[in-house]
Specification:
Number of helices: 4
Distance between the termini: 186 Å
Pfam families: Snapin_Pallidin (PF14712)
Largest sheet: none
Radius of gyration: 56 Å
Protein name: Biogenesis of lysosome-related organelles complex 1 subunit 6
GO cellular component, one term: transport vesicle
Number of strands: 0
Low-confidence stretches: none
Helix content: over 70%
Shape: rod-shaped
Mean pLDDT: 81
Length: about 150
């Protein structure tokens, strides 16, 4: 009878020898040699990019924190409240200035009309006085005195 114990046989003899193992190893080492430097450069660039992104995120976080602190500031809120009040005052002053300007324009037009009509009124008023003076032999003051 044969001994069924296979432990005494070396493993190398049990496995068939792969004919393609040596060319496969050469192709793999060639591809690795060819692709490894660009991949290492890409990995380094990605690491640098990730580090820069982390720095930017931390800077943005700090800026957001400072902005939120400023927004929570009571002084800033007071300034905005005053700004609203001054804006309403400014609008009121503008409205008043427009009103005063329109009144001033109306008064100027009225003054021009009065200035133009005043000589006509003087002519109209002076004619009846001249007629009464020429028509009677009495002096103009005599009618008031009763002479």
């Amino acid at each position: 009878m044969l001994n069924a114990d296979f432990t005494s046989i070396p493993l190398a003899k049990l496995e068939p020898e792969n004919v393609y193992s040596k060319p496969t190893e050469m192709i793999i080492s060639g591809l690795t040699h060819y692709l490894e430097p660009p991949l290492k450069d890409a990995k380094q660039q990605l690491c640098e990019l990730v580090n820069k992104q982390r720095e930017l995120v931390s800077q943005l976080h700090n800026e957001n924190m400072s902005i939120s602190e400023v927004q929570q500031s009571t002084e800033l809120q007071d300034v905005f409240t005053e700004m609203k009040q001054y804006h309403t005052k400014l609008l009121t002053i503008k409205r008043d200035m427009r009103l005063l300007h329109s009144r001033c324009q109306k008064l100027k037009r009225r003054a021009l009309k009065l200035k133009d009509s005043k000589p006509e009124e003087e002519i109209i008023i002076s004619k009846p006085v001249q007629l009464t003076n020429h028509g009677s032999s009495q002096s103009p003051n005599s009618s008031f005195i009763g002479i």
